[in-house]
Amino acid sequence: MNDWRFERPPGLPLPQPAEEARPFFDALLEGRLAIQCCVACGLLLHPPRAVCSACQSTDFDWQETSGKGVVYSYVVTHQAVHPALAGHTPLATVEVELAEGPHITSNLIDVPPESVEIGMAVTVVFEEVSDGVVLPLFRHH
Amino acid sequence: MSFSNSVAIVGVGETDYSRASGRTELALSLQAIRAALDDAGIEPDDVDGLMKWWVDTSTEAEVAANMGIRDLAWWGEISQAGNVGAPLVAHAAAAIHAGLANVVVIYRGVNGRSGRRYGRGDVTGQGGRGGGAFTEPFGLLTPQHGLAMVARRRMYETGITSRHFGMQAVAQRRHANRNPRATFYERTLTLAEHQSSRLIVDPFHLFDCCLETDGAGALVLASADFARELGKPAALIRAAAQSGPGVGSPAARGAKRLFAMAGVERDDIDVIQIYDHFGPFVLFALEDYGFVEDAGRLVEEGGTDFDGGRRPVNTSGGHLSEAYLQGINHLIEATRQVRGESTAQVPNVTFSFCDTGIGTGSVILERGES
Description:
Chain A contains one helix and eight strands. By secondary structure, chain A is mainly β. In chain A, a hairpin with a 2-residue loop joins strand 7 (121-130) and strand 8 (133-139). With 370 residues, chain B is α/β, with parallel strands linked by helices. Chain B has helices at 25-40, 60-67, 85-97, 121-124, 143-158, 162-176, 191-196, 224-230, 250-262, 280-288, 295-300, 318-321, 328-339; strands at 7-14, 49-53, 74-78, 103-111, 199-202, 204-205, 214-223, 235-242, 271-273, 351-355, 361-367. Chain B is globular and about 55 Å long.
């Protein structure tokens, strides 16, 4: 159990981000989990937006987060409802509430699907899943 | 001026429900439309308005040409996905009330099992584009994934359990067992069978998930004055509401508009239909619409079951056990309840409630004169 390690189904889609989302993925390449931040009002926005939903500003910065959070919710896929999942179930996917507030979707690298619980403390790790593509995954321990 | 009770559903119809229709989606829709027009007692060329789900593949031009409509005065569709049945009723009622059309047909025809399967990530996924860039690389690929995430959190916050979800699934199966049209007419379901059914996306068991269906349904809407001339019981549209993106529960926000327009209270509603792509969301919606504070306790007491329940929910069997026709079968059943034509008929229905998308849209129908 302690040596369980997440193996990402290799056929899962890779991110094809829109223009406003590119800086999020560029920061991951540098080992930073950065969230879009409105310069005018300070609101953190995730997923990234074209306009700040609070003040309508288009002036954005990218704020590096602590990478720490808790599991807000999770699902465990048992049926291969996508070809990429065949042979890779059960697969747990988590919604992490970052300490800074935003929620992001991810996987836990060191918790088997049957042991995931809401409220678990987690920390980001950066995993290169393909050439030039880094995803933010999380560890519990 | 509100259109409350000035427009009615005057006809409903559907095809057979199957896993392999052997017909095109257009042919299915035309068959359902014919049945609905026959039910209303009017001819195809009386129709001057058409409305469709945005995702429906049969265009209004194809439908009008096949029906032989000589003067289509008004048409439209609503974006999003399967969840727009009641919004279409709201739009059609507004159009009739505004004088843009006299008789509007709303249709939905889909080969949901033999054709495009909505539960498949390779069918409905975004290929990592758009919002999918942040979810699909981690395995959230289908509608059930996002909804399971919401359901899991709600279980954590409120204490509602998979057994409660099972109780609702069993109640709906019992309703389907009374309904010869239902896919599961001849198949019973116990709570134990629900609990031991395979997990699809935990917390959803197999029997928490809707069917996949080939079939079609249609509604005919006209003015209340026109409805009276037809001499059949009409379902007056007492109120309709949409609820889109915003802050907080769409159902709770939509309910304010719906019940304000209707001028009635939750307790005045005699029978309820709620969109059940996934059964747990029926219970969540009962709470969010304000029908009950604790839906888990309600199902423990059998409160949604036709037999013994004070106010049954999803009396045709719904998407779980009748057919997955993306809400049009709920609207058909809500209409039958006010006309006294359901196979699980609640006595003396005055007000029939129907949600078609967990808040996205809802209607209250009222029994009209016959």
